[in-house]
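Severity: low
Component: inverse-folding endpoint
Summary: output formatting inconsistent between runs
Steps to reproduce: submit the following structure tokens with default settings.
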């Protein structure tokens, strides 16, 4: 650590043990008026007193724990829902959506069972099978050549 950037010029030659005993005005940016206020409010007369101030230790502990704390459950759930919604939408560069100014939402295949997605899925499937069967038959009902 470059001590010269955090203490005033007249304290540059002091070791850390000596600096701890010096008044808080030794710290760069602390005025005599601020030092007097610290002394009146908290009884602080030295850098060591400032470092030992219980409020400072509590504040540091809270900040340290805040960085280690996981996200609250409801915030994580909201984030997950937003992520899922973003993944299910078409990108803004989709030309069909841009030209028609329609926002389309696509549900990923692993999220929805397509056979149960339509109310008439079974009748659609039967109609498709019938159409495929008629295609394979000729005009007289006999099978076309090359179809099984």
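Observed output (run 2 of 3):
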């Amino acid at each position: 650590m470059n001590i010269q950037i955090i203490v005033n010029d007249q304290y540059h030659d002091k070791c850390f043990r000596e600096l701890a005993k010096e008044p808080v005005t030794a710290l760069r940016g602390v005025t005599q008026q601020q030092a007097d206020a610290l002394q009146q409010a908290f009884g602080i007369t030295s850098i060591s007193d400032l470092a030992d101030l219980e409020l400072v230790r509590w504040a540091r502990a809270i900040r340290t724990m805040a960085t280690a704390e996981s996200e609250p459950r409801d915030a994580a759930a909201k984030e997950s829902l937003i992520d899922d919604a973003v993944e299910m939408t078409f990108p803004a560069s989709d030309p069909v959506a841009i030209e028609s100014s329609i926002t389309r939402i696509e549900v990923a295949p692993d999220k929805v069972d397509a056979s149960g997605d339509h109310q008439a899925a079974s009748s659609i499937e039967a109609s498709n099978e019938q159409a495929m069967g008629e295609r394979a038959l000729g005009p007289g009902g006999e099978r076309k050549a090359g179809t099984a």
